[in-house]
Amino acid sequence: MARTAAPGSRERILRTAGELFYRHGVRAVGMNQVIDAAGCGKNLLYRHFPSKDDLVAAYLRACRRERDRSSAQATAALADDPAARLRALVAEVAATATRPDFRGCAFRLYLAEFPGHEGEPARLARDYLRDTRAEIDELVARLDVADPGQLADRIWLIVEGLYASAARTDSGRTSAAATRLIDDLLAAALPG
Known about the structure:
This protein is mainly alpha-helical. The protein contains 9 helices and no strands.
């Protein structure tokens, strides 16, 4: 007779795998390493996550929930002010990028490891990037600016730059510059 899994075993496995994937990269972490680190049996792991792709997809979905929660929290009181929301979104990414344990965006890291992959994890990563870019485009479209496409591109480059510079020792300086740059861009683009 099969044993009943302890409550929370799926979450423990996912949390452990997520920490390993983020610290070492998805390609470098094998399922046996997850089993050892999570202190679970092979059958339990595969009952919850039938394949490594299933485990990686669950990890990326958890990352998405956390990123969405963090972004929503940063912009909660700013629904009617697209410029303030853009500033808050960039400031939130800047603050995230300066955390001592931050080594980059999980979605960008995954796509860098598996540039040609077409499975569910790659779809989840690309969907996240598409959706966050669309949010910037939508907020810029609500501003009265001469060239919304160019402004959105520039803001997206700031976000990309923050993620790209996260692993550097001077990421705090870069983050401060990014928040000043978004203010400068918006001041130059907005009438009045």
